[in-house]
Amino acid sequence: MRDSRATRLLFKVGAILFALIVTTGVLFLAKAQPFAAYKYITLGALGSWDVVTNVFVSWVPLLLATSGLLVTFTVGLWNIGIEGQITLGAIFTTWAMRLLEHSGWNPTLILMLAVLAGMLGGALWAMLAGALKTFGGVNEIFGGLGLNFVATALNIWLIFGPWKRPGVASMSGTIPFDRSLWMPIAQGSSRLTPATLVMAIVGILVVYAMIEGTYFGLRLKAVGKNARSAHILGIPTWQYMMSSFAVCGIFAGVAGAVQVTAVYHRLIPSISSGYGYLGLMVAMLVGYRASLAAPVALFFAALNVGSIQLPIVLKLDSSLAGVLQGTLVLFVVLGQGVRSRILKKTKVKS
Amino acid sequence: MNNSALFVSLGGVLASAAPVLFAVIGETISERAGVLNLSMNGMILLSAMGSFAVALSTGSVVLGFLAGALIGALVSLVVVFASLTLLQSQVAVGFVLALLCRDLSYFLGSPIMGQVGPRISQLPIPGLEQIPVLGTILFRQDMMTYLSFILVILAWFFIFKTRPGLTLRGIGERPAAAFVRGANVNRLRYLYAVLGGAIAGLAGPIYSLSVKAGWKGTISGLDGIGWIVLSITIFGGWKPFRAAFGAYLFAFLQWLGLVLQPSLPSVPSQVLQVAPFPLMILTLLFVNIGNAEWVERSLARLPENVRRDIAKVLRAMNATPPAALGVPFEKE
């Protein structure tokens, strides 16, 4: 077997088939009808213009998170703390909105400042994980996980404490912002906000250009491939790690800002909606390269939105989307291993 | 609170630490062999759900516990197969499995959510339970809590006092040297990772058949435990007794959060429940800071006697991971 585009594609297709087989098996185990489940997921994601716009609403924060993660993956860092960074972005955004909502300023200006505040929040939280890693020797995975829990606690404390609704605080979040302070919604749609779509598309293009076309990106790659030799060649490794954390935090912060200003219009306990972890999966699936991130994130968003109806129409839990996404990433990773094993054997023989 | 109620609750702290202990000891064995099993969080959820489902349909808690161990072993098998045989990143595979197993448990568990099933009962030890104070705290527990005490001692004895234990440390520390001395590194890594997975898998049924009996889906309160387990493993410095101390400290802090709740009405309960996490980060920082290069450099500048004292404190807290943790071994 030769290493070619064709064999690589073959393994990708194989991974998709295996993921479908396993998920179908899981559905049989749950005594459900697989074809009905797949049909309703497809209908739930593509059935009407309204659900299609919902897919894009979910695509924006997912792609933003993935874009940020591609930068940290390039320097070889596992930024699992991204969930907390999204949450802090949302908290800072809400804080700015609360500060300015009665100022009488132009709503567009307020929204722009709120997104900037979100960037700041995400970046600060990411740099905290970065500082723990570079100065404290705490592995970014464990530091990040701990910071995720702290961010959740901070968020819940704000919702139930200082920022609680007048009267009784509840899990439904803070009091919604005035309609004039919502991200403007496109005509003929109920939730689609063109401004956030632009942010996501510009974001992934910036990341692509940064990694593939700049000196900064080249150095990031050098650190990621071999931090020691990069250091010996005179690249200040820790500065590059810190900057990649900061960049990823900015993207996560924007994702949090989008959740607050365009999706929920308030702060809720689970404001990050798991987009950070899902972004890690998308980044793994695209082999940490920016070129495929947008379409794959769209597919994952479609699965998420498509499965929302499952509990109602088929009495199945909507976590089926996660099962399908998880098996898909797992088989792609396993497939890479099998492929390189076979390639190695053929090389030895020839 | 009067004293006897306090002792009963302290007994409860020991019981609620039992599943964490099993998981931490399992992970410690696996990481000692050089295999980082990051799937812990999803694996505990899946084994909790799976073992409850098995116990519910068969009426046997024993089969439930076996199912939990089996699920733990199988998930670990996927991690080692992907990393040792297929040479893929342990972190990547472990993380995917952490999410996949969590979603699987929610999906497959939804039909049995909220059902009342079998659970293991208290097993007071005759005689010993009469001892004042200690009897109430230590000897009115269930089987698995007693086993958790024994497990810590067994694991310590095995790792540090036996010949196979020496080899176990060898394959995680210097696999090449262990290989030269005749150890089949990869086979042993398979063995210990799967064994560690099976032990950790018992954490699930200890929750669903005892500590938090039943399966309640996303509100089970189990999501997150696995990540704590991984932090406690580091805090424990890959030593069973220190790990046990970490597990008890965590259980105690969570209990303290519940006790303090009435006296701090302004703080929502969800905040107190996560109070141990910032503490975990701080401890990770203390445990690791001695490894950082700049600390060594700045220490070198201090006067000799001060330096020696600080270095001593740092060394006491310090924990160094097995040198070959997460690194695949190839014979060439």
How many DSSP H or I helices of chain A? 14
Radius of gyration of chain B: 21 Å
Largest sheet of chain A: none
Write down the secondary-structure element order of chain B: HHHHHHHHHHHHHHHH
Query: What general outline of chain A do the C-alpha atoms trace?
Result: globular
User: Would you give the CATH topology of the largest domain in chain B?
Assistant: ABC transporter involved in vitamin B12 uptake, BtuC
Proportion in helices of chain B: over 70%
Low-confidence stretches of chain B: none
**Helicity of chain A, as a percent range:** over 70%
Mean pLDDT of chain A: 90
What does the oligomeric state look like here? Answer: heterodimer
Strand tally of chain B is: 0
Strand and helix order of chain A: HHHHHHHHHHHHHH
Provide the residue-averaged pLDDT of chain B: 85
How many H/I helical runs of chain B? 16
What structural class do helix, strand and pairing data of chain B support? mainly alpha
Biggest β-sheet description of chain B:
none
* N→C terminal distance of chain B: 65 Å
CATH class of the largest domain in chain A: Mainly Alpha
Uncertain ranges of chain A = none
Domain count of chain A: 2
SSE inventory with pairings:
The complex is a heterodimer of chains A (350) and B (332).
Chain A lengths: L4 H25 L4 H13 L2 H26 L7 H19 L6 H30 L3 H21 L33 H20 L1 H11 L1 H6 L4 H28 L10 H11 L7 H14 L3 H5 L5 H30 L1
Helix pairs in contact in A: 1-14, 2-12, 3-7, 3-10, 3-11, 3-12, 4-5, 4-6, 4-10, 5-6, 5-10, 7-8, 11-12, 11-14, 12-14
Chain B lengths: L2 H30 L7 H19 L2 H25 L4 H20 L24 H5 L4 H19 L1 H11 L1 H6 L4 H17 L1 H9 L13 H11 L4 H21 L8 H5 L2 H14 L3 H9 L2 H14 L15
Helix pairs in contact in B: 1-6, 1-9, 1-10, 1-11, 1-12, 2-3, 2-4, 2-10, 2-11, 3-4, 3-9, 3-10, 6-7, 11-12, 11-14
